[in-house]
Amino acid sequence: MKYFILNNGIKMPVIGLGTFPMRRLELFKVFFQATSCGYTSFDTSSAYGNERWLGLAQWISRKQREKLFFTTKLSNSQQREGNIRKALEDSLRLLKLDYIDLYLMHWPNPETYLKSWKEMEKLYEEKLIRAIGVCNFHEHHLNKLFSVANVIPAVNQIELHPLLSQKPLVNFCKKYNIQIEAYSPLARMNEKLIKNKTLIDLSKKYNKTISQIIFRWNYQNNIIVIPKTSHKNRLIENIDFFDFEISSDDIKKIDLINCDFRVRHNPDTCDFTKL
Ligand SMILES: NC(=O)c1ccc[n+]([C@@H]2O[C@H](COP(=O)([O-])OP(=O)(O)OC[C@H]3O[C@@H](n4cnc5c(N)ncnc54)[C@H](OP(=O)(O)O)[C@@H]3O)[C@@H](O)[C@H]2O)c1
Predict the structure, then answer these.
(1) Which of 24, 31, 96, 149 could form a disulfide with 55 if both were Cys (CB 3.0 to 4.6 A apart)?
(2) What distance lies between CA 269 and its chain's CA centroid?
(3) Pairing of strands 3-5, 11-13
(4) How far is the CA of 245 from the centre of ligand 1 (A)?
(5) What pLDDT score was predicted for residue 272?
(6) Residue to mutate, 159, 183, 236, ligand 1, most ligand atoms under 8 Å from C-beta
(7) Is 266 within a domain?
(8) What is the mean pLDDT of residues 105-132?
(9) Atom of ligand 1 nearest to the CA of 211
């Protein structure tokens, strides 16, 4: 597995398995398939309702803890309730872990996010979490966070794929040494993406699938990806992008696909009471 180094020195795998919306036996089975294919990093959230199943699988697998990387998230409802310590303790219990590798705030709810961050910092200082970060933060959320933060987020997990390359935000995060992690990196296989001519041409040119072209584009841009799949052949396909290189001209061609198309909510316009 290859890693990027976070701003506090922690090594984070460049690809992880997205686990939403898998649950129960499906997730249990996929955990074992994924680890046998070489996945070491798993992305969940208390909002996904699947931590229990991921926890059970990792516990039964008896994999060496230090060889796995678990990300989970503080949900909006947990932020509203306001007991951040209890939220983390619940995740630790369900995941059957003593510590979380990366704890992310799921959304920048304007009413709670600054207060929640200060509580997350305390849990980080107590070493219950190896790194803390955020999701769905725009530049203005980060600027506001910087005004109260003692700890700069290690990661910003955002929707990112060729239809939504988020270049200004990516450059802003780079300036502050915040690692970008791309969720929905395949735009949930939206037609606009899979029928894109540039991607189809590059797929033929490099003899790789469109998914592999996208993951490699991210890797060469220092971006972590967390695709979700529950199929073994796709688990194998999605992790197989380390044996080729996309030329800088072709990277630029992929950059040009951007049309600011989202498959998930825009954090500036979403209704936090419903998320
Ligand atoms: N922080 C946040 O707010 C947030 C929001 C959304 C998602 N996430 C995280 O990001 C993860 C991934 O995002 P996502 O699930 O929204 O979208 P995604 O990974 O872009 O797309 C998942 C879809 O692509 C299919 N797929 C995966 N690999 C494929 C391949 N090689 N060929 C063809 N189809 C393939 C999957 O189908 P099959 O399963 O049938 O293969 C699934 O339908 C989530 O699981 C979650 O952990 C975070």
Answers:
(1) 96
(2) 21
(3) antiparallel
(4) 23
(5) 83
(6) 183
(7) no
(8) 97
(9) 31
* Residue 70 near residue 94 (C-beta atoms within 8 A): no
What DSSP string describes 106-150? S---TTTHHHHHHHHHHHHHTTSEEEEEEES--HHHHHHHHTT-S
The pLDDT value given to residue 63: 96
**Ligand 1 centroid from CA 125, angstroms:** 32
274: in domain: no
| Mean pLDDT rounded to a whole number for the chain | 97
- CA dist 118 and 266 (Å) reads 24
Residue pair 154/102 in contact by the 8 Å Cβ criterion: yes
pLDDT in tens, 212-237: 999 999 999 999 999 999 999 999 99
275: confidence class by pLDDT, cuts 50, 70, 90: confident
Compute the residue count for the chain: 275
d(CA 169, CA 146): 15
Alpha carbon 111 to its chain's center: 24
Contact between 82 and 112 (Cβ < 8 Å): yes
Under DSSP, is residue 21 helix (H, G, I), strand (E, B) or coil?
coil
Copy the structure tokens of residue 211: 């998914």
Render 238-268 in DSSP notation, one character per residue.
HT--SS----HHHHHHHHTT-----SS--TT
Provide the greatest CA pair distance for the chain: 52
**Domain count of the fold of the chain:** 1
185 occurs within a structural domain:
yes
Catalytic residue numbers, as ranges: 48
